[in-house]
Task: structure prediction
Amino acid sequence: MDKDYLTIKEAAKMLGVSSSTLRRLEKDGVVEGYGLHVYYTPGGQRRYYYNEVEYAYKKWGVSKKVGFGAKPCIIVRDLIRAFTDESSKAGYDLSEVIEQTRILLEQAKEEQIPVIFAITFYEPGNRYSEIWAKKIESNQLLIKDSVWTEIDPRLSSFAFEEVMFSPYVSPFFRSQLADWIEEHEIDTAIVAGNSTSGCVRVTVIDALQHGLRPIIAKETVGDRSPLINETALLELDAKYADVVSMEEVLRYFASLRK
Result:
């Protein structure tokens, strides 16, 4: 986390309620039912302690672990130059995510675990692609075969099982990925890449809908800010996937040798 306190809008988003609900439940400096203490800035703005909001979310959104299966694959999303090269209009610092993903892929290679690299591209004339570009104008950078849809050089030498290009948010949509997974009897999808609140999130949800066990090594995913990343991981861990440490994933890889 890059800060200890959240605004009322940030706290409400994390908890899945409205800002007005937090105001309405507030009594004597505490949000009733959630146990959140309310702090005020000198200008009278409400602030909430991040750790308290995180605890409240986990308490009211209790979930179990799906666990690892017997046969995994890795799906890497959009660690391409449009997002990893800070000279790009859409780029930001994903250096640590790339380094951790590189470690994950090197270990996967040793264990002969297949890796799919899924790249989002902009397809002029595709109605869906053009609508999405109206929402996120920088998507127009993602022309297939351009420099911006190249895999980040720090990962490009890796021998991927397949490199998929898709104009859709999910690599499962209108592709052969589901058939490939069924053919190879894959039961676990470890999802890495960019961005946690966007394409990673959708990939995890679709993996679950295809009967896979979705896993995220938290060090291998990133977003535009630490707060967005942490909030997205919190939601994914509560509802759709197991968010675990890289160490736990590597222990799982080692267990597959037995």
